[in-house]
Amino acid sequence: MSDTTPTLPVMTHSDLTTWWRCPRRVGYRLLGYEKPAITLSQAILRGTLFDRGVGAWLQGKDYKQVVEAKAKDIAEDGIWLLDNDIKLQEALEALGKAKTGAYEMLERYTTVTPKPIALEVQELIQYKEAGGHPDAVLLETSPLTALIIVDYKTGREPDLRYLSMSGQVDYYAYLYELTRKRTVTFIDYQVISEQGIHEYRRPPRLTRGKRFFGQVRLLAHLSLESLLDDPHVSYDCSSCPFFKPCLTREAGGDDFDILHSEYSRSEPRISEPGDSKVE
Ligand code: SF4
Fold first, then answer.
1. What angle do CA 81, 86, 91 make, to 5 degrees?
2. Ligand 1 pocket, residue 237 CB under 6 Å
3. Considering the entire predicted model, what is its pTM?
């Protein structure tokens, strides 16, 4: 007998918060389209390079090699898009500055931070159609044993109200406990900013994490057509990476023509077939 269970996408907390703002944006992401990284802002590139570097450091690798390799990938992946020498030069300069900034932060961070045991670094945790990539899952053994899910923040000092309200890491904690059958002791924001290095740590709110988990799974059951058919035009559009194809679609043009010619595309995210009933 063949398995007739429909194949569902893997959704994340980030997809959920994006869906609150605009379903169409999630539809384009679901298809695997993204702006080539080289076109992103210097601050975002610096954060990406920092995340890679700190992950390598936690695993005992040479973080400079990993950052160099990632910067090279970003440059090579995006060069085809930059249709003239001036744009290319500007993008490569921004990438170079992002790399310098990432090294400066890594230097400061790794000098003052004792290296804990890394259980997982930037790996996908997934339960059926709900997934997520915590920056790191760490084990502290002193003064007490504690399992900690870490989220790194770079750039400006974030608003503490945001860190206390955001449920993203609570969602990771719930997903981690569900899949790994281990108790998460703390969620921990490590902030590396121009003002210094700060840590905000608290126990996970698993009830909140579970609520987001249910919402993420429900999101995976929406059809791609319904997502793409539902644009929420707002001030967010001005910073949306899909502004151009979306407006083209609204004007009756071919958005996929633009997506094919100006966007990178990774494999669409599909979950394993199986029971997809959401409790
Ligand atoms: S441009 Fe606006 S309406 Fe279109 S996908 Fe982006 S956020 Fe949604």
1. 60
2. yes
3. 0.89
